[in-house]
């Protein structure tokens, strides 16, 4: 068995020790828990000592108050409490105390940010925290001044699914696996800054409340390089675990990220805690470095290119937070060119608790704010940097201060024309940082000239590698009505086929421009019908889509057609225009309606399935549930990259985003994106047809494990070694993902029958080997539905159900009898017996440990061909009989039931190990007395969560052992008592 302690946990503790943490390893050292109760997650003596050390003036009463205050925060939820605690840790608290000048409010620090070495950094493994039902024991908990800021779950890199297993544990600890479950201990996460899953060869990070799919790697230890990390830790190989632990838990970095790179945002489902990812942290640090070394000889600024969907607005926010603290009263101006983006950025800063951002309402308000509001944060549209109609000459200088920092969102769009010159004139000494979600053009003439060179880049390929975004695929449909130049005459004839030649000539002369054809009733009807069929057949719920049209009128027509054709539930989203005719105005949603449409669309369970748009929501609108964009509008260059990014956000079981093109704008992607470097945009959009070679290769790999996929038993025997199963599982899932992408395209047809057969092999292998890692997670929603339907039709239990228990003699016997030969029966029995022993081991480690050894001996003989199939079946049947007859074994010894048998075995085992003789009758009596003591305590509700009750039980058991005059030393009695307590936990669960 792989050892997570040896392969991941102990190396992690060593790494933390090298980073300056005081480490206690409970596998090597006895640690005396200072807490009064395990239901608390704070090490109060350490907290108390730190508060007193950092605030040496504090008196006893106020010390007690400060220590109490951080622990007794009361909120509406654990997330609410986490936010309140974060506020106290970052902004401190205050108490009233007379320090010689009367009773005044005094600031009490919980953490010294300026001098990290003044804090107490303590790491402990296997730290127990009681929840409402169960006790959790994370592998490593990291305390700063006694406050648990970090939780690290370690797995051996050789287990089947280390990432999934570790994240499942973290979710369990946080009670995130079910809506009503209380299997974890949220008390620990009231304080949590970072939660980490690591398996040495990989590591991902999140924080409290982060969904499993959003835990991400930390690939860049900036400002260090991997060579520096190797020197720091004295290693030749820098593992992802080394990189992660340095990036998050280096003392200075941890406190920096707690203070400057952590925000709370409120969305439709409640509060969310957000911490920086590596590209955001790196970009902010690089930007600050450039600001600190600004020079008049070069451009006053630079450009941050982080691809769409990678958290650009948050990077701006983190930079603002750090600038606020790094510079004395900086003025920050956040600029964009669209009202929706201005609203979004202002709302993001406001929601995340940024100090009072102010929105410039109009031209005069902007001028007034920039003249008079030094030290403020101002959001504005670039359009407000313009002259009034009655003004002449140059734009006025509003401030010559050099502590003004201008952050420009979507810098590629807004900064090249007269308005940009006006802004530069208004703020000649400001420092400008451009943020863009799309790369800078090859000719470098505009953005770089305005802002300077790149500060940081996070490319499309990098975001795909990190699973920060999903791949966007492209598919052209209804080629005969694409609006490409060569097709216009043919399209015209098709749309107006019922007109006479004279009428056609007049229509063509007066109206038949490209846009008119795009909006022709007959064409929209045909495209809408195709959208409805494609969405219903190709896009599996919960995924949703957007329809992008040429104009407001076209959007309205599409909406009406969708309704007429009983299509998916849709909403038209168009802007209000003063000059719009009434029949258009009535379709423009109010602010309240728009907010409701967006909420119902973003919610996977919301009724809105399609949004029909023209220009709105094509930038700055995040809807991870959106998988498909039906594009019937000419888009190019930056606008194309921004629009298609609406479908690149990750979502569970979403393997890709899809652009369905009805306009013909992307048949030649190289032309459409020619202004960019090919390396920057080569994976911006990938034609669906490009997936064919990948699908063929994935199919070859998946079937290559077997000589004949029709021979089920031979296939199952092939998958018996765990490493082979892991390889097959990865190959099968990749094949399934690609089938999910291409179905129902005809290119999938040659592989459908093999997908069915491989799915059956996969499901039966999961059953045979009791392998919980063989789930359908990540296969894709569409294919998962097909797979489950297929394996049900074959009479196989659903993949997530438990296999037939060997303790059910009738059902398991029937299962064995149904197998075709002794080889299959032997395989099924030995894996079933091994699984059952593993599951029940804690109930009676003595008996099940002995059975486990016998099974391992049998399997070794079988592998060496010293036993036949029939012989191992016979021997395994004997072991099965022993497992099923525990009650009979108990009664034969004079015990009440199999529970007493477990305690009897534990007592007998310790006595025999010490070569101490006790008569059978006395041993039975002692067992009954001890079980009575256990049941007296275990009958109390939630006894396992109450340390006082467990201590009481421990005393009672020891007293019984003393009274029974069992010939054991004090240390031997303690050892036996510990074993009895563990048995009590296994047998008397709530």
From TrEMBL:
Q: What is its EC number?
A: 3.1.21.3
Q: Which Gene3D superfamilies match?
A: 3.90.1570.50, P-loop containing nucleotide triphosphate hydrolases
- Known SMART domains for this protein? DEXDc
List the SUPFAM superfamilies.
P-loop containing nucleoside triphosphate hydrolases
Catalytic activity, per the record? Endonucleolytic cleavage of DNA to give random double-stranded fragments with terminal 5'-phosphates, ATP is simultaneously hydrolyzed
What region holds the Helicase ATP-binding domain? 293-457
Q: Which residues form the signal peptide?
A: none
**Superkingdom in the source lineage:** Archaea
Q: Which UniProt keywords apply?
A: ATP-binding, Coiled coil, DNA-binding, Endonuclease, Hydrolase, Nuclease, Nucleotide-binding, Restriction system
User: Record's Pfam families?
Assistant: HSDR_N (PF04313), SWI2_SNF2 (PF18766), T1R_D3-like (PF22679), T1RH-like_C (PF11867)
MF (Gene Ontology)? endonuclease activity
User: What InterPro entries does the annotation carry?
Assistant: Helicase_ATP-bd (IPR014001), HsdR_RecA-like_helicase_dom_2 (IPR055180), P-loop_NTPase (IPR027417), Restrct_endonuc_type1_HsdR_N (IPR007409), Restrct_endonuc_typeI_HsdR (IPR004473), SWI2_SNF2 (IPR040980), T1RH-like_C (IPR021810), Type-I_R_enzyme_R_subunit (IPR051268)
User: Is Flavoprotein among the key words of this record?
Assistant: no
Q: Which residues form a coiled coil?
A: 510-537, 848-893
NCBIfam families referenced in this protein's UniProt entry, alphabetically = hsdR (TIGR00348)
Matching PANTHER family, A to Z? TYPE I RESTRICTION ENZYME HINDI ENDONUCLEASE SUBUNIT, TYPE I SITE-SPECIFIC DEOXYRIBONUCLEASE PROTEIN SUBUNIT M AND R
Family affiliation: Belongs to the HsdR family.
Q: Can you name this protein?
A: type I site-specific deoxyribonuclease
């Amino acid at each position: 068995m792989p050892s997570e302690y040896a392969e991941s946990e102990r190396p992690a503790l060593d790494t933390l020790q090298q980073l300056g943490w005081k480490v206690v390893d409970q596998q090597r050292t006895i640690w005396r828990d200072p807490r009064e109760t395990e239901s608390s997650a704070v090490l109060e003596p350490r907290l108390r000592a730190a508060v007193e050390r950092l605030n040496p003036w504090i008196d006893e009463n106020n010390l007690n108050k400060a220590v109490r205050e951080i622990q007794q925060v009361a909120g509406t939820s654990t997330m609410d409490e986490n936010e309140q605690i974060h506020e106290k840790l970052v902004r401190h608290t205050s108490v009233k105390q007379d320090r010689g000048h009367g009773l005044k409010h005094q600031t009490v620090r919980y953490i010294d940010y300026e001098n990290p070495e003044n804090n107490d950094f303590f790491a402990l493994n296997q730290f127990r925290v009681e929840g409402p039902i169960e006790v959790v024991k994370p592998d490593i908990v990291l305390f700063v001044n006694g406050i648990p800021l970090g939780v690290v779950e370690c797995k051996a890199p050789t287990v089947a699914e280390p990432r999934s297993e570790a994240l499942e544990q973290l979710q369990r600890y946080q009670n995130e696996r079910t809506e009503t479950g209380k299997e974890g201990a949220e008390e620990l996460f009231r304080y949590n800054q970072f939660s980490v899953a690591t398996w040495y060869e990989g590591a991902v990070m999140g924080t409290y409340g982060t969904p499993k799919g959003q835990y991400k790697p930390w690939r860049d230890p900036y400002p260090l390089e991997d060579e520096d990390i190797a020197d720091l830790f004295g290693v030749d190989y820098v593992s992802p675990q080394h990189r992660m632990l340095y990036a998050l838990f280096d003392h200075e970095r941890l406190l920096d990220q707690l203070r400057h790179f952590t925000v709370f945002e409120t969305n439709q489902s409640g509060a969310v805690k957000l911490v920086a990812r590596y590209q955001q942290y790196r970009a902010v640090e690089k930007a600050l470095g450039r600001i600190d070394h600004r020079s008049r000889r070069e451009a006053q600024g630079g450009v941050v290119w982080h691809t769409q969907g990678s958290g650009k607005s948050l990077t701006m926010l983190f930079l603002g937070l750090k600038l606020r603290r790094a510079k004395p009263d900086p003025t920050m101006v956040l600029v964009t060119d669209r009202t929706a983006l201005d609203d979004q950025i202002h709302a993001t800063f406001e929601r995340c608790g940024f100090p009072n951002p102010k929105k410039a309402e109009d031209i005069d308000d902007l001028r007034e704010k920039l003249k008079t509001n030094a030290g403020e944060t101002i959001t504005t549209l670039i359009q407000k940097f313009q002259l009034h109609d009655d003004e002449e000459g140059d734009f006025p200088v509003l401030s010559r201060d050099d502590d003004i920092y201008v952050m420009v969102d979507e810098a590629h769009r807004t900064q090249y024309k007269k308005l940009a010159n006006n802004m530069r004139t208004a703020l000649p000494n400001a420092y400008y940082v451009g943020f863009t979600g799309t790369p800078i053009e090859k000719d470098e003439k505009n953005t770089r000239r305005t802002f300077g060179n790149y500060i940081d880049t996070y490319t499309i390929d990098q975001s795909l590698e990190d699973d920060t975004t999903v791949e966007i695929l492209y598919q052209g449909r209804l080629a005969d009505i694409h609006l490409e130049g060569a097709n216009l005459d043919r399209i015209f004839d098709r749309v107006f086929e019922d007109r006479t030649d004279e009428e056609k000539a007049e229509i063509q002369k007066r109206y038949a421009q490209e846009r008119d054809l795009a909006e022709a009733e007959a064409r929209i009807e045909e495209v809408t019908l195709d959208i409805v069929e494609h969405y219903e057949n190709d896009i599996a719920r919960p995924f949703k889509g957007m329809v992008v049209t040429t104009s407001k009128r076209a959007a309205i027509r599409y909406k009406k057609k969708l309704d007429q054709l009983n299509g998916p539930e849709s909403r038209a989203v168009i802007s209000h225009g003063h000059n719009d005719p009434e029949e258009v105005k009535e379709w423009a949603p109010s602010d309240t309606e728009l907010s409701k449409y967006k909420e119902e669309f973003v919610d996977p369970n919301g009724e809105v399935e399609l949004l029909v748009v023209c220009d709105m929501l094509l930038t700055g609108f995040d809807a991870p549930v959106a998988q498909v964009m039906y594009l019937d509008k000419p888009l190019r260059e930056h606008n194309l990259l921004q629009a298609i990014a609406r479908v690149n956000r990750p979502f569970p079981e979403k393997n890709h985003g899809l652009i369905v093109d009805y306009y013909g704008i992307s048949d030649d992607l190289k032309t459409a994106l020619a202004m960019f470097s090919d390396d920057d945009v080569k994976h911006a959009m990938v034609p669906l047809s490009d997936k064919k070679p990948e699908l063929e290769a994935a199919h070859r790999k998946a079937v290559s494990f077997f000589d004949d996929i029709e021979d089920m038993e031979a296939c199952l025997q092939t998958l018996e070694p765990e490493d082979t199963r892991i390889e097959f599982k990865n190959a099968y899932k990749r094949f399934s993902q690609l089938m999910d992408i291409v179905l129902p395209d005809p290119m999938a047809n040659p592989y459908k029958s093999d997908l069915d057969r491989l799915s059956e092999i996969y499901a039966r292998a999961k059953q045979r080997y009791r392998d919980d890692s063989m789930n359908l997670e990540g296969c894709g929603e569409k294919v998962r539905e097909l797979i489950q339907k297929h394996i049900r039709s074959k009479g196989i239990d659903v993949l997530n159900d438990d296999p037939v228990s060997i303790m059910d003699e009738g059902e398991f016997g029937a299962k064995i009898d149904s197998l075709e030969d002794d080889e299959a029966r032997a395989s099924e029995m030995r894996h079933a017996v091994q699984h059952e022993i593993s599951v029940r081991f804690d109930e009676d480690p003595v008996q099940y440990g002995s059975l486990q050894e016998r099974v391992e001996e049998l399997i070794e003989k079988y592998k060496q061909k010293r036993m036949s199939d029939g012989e191992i079946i016979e021997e395994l049947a004997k072991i099965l009989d022993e497992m099923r007859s525990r009650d009979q074994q108990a009664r034969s010894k004079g015990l009440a039931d199999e529970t007493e048998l477990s305690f009897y075995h534990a007592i007998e085992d310790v006595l025999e190990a010490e070569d101490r003789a006790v008569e059978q009758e006395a041993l039975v009596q002692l067992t009954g007395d001890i079980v009575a003591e256990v049941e007296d305590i275990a009958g109390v509700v939630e006894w396992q969560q109450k340390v006082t009750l467990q201590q009481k039980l421990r005393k009672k058991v020891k007293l019984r052992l003393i009274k029974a005059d069992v010939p054991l030393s004090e240390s031997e009695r303690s050892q036996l008592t510990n074993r009895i307590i563990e048995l009590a936990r296994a047998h008397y669960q709530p």
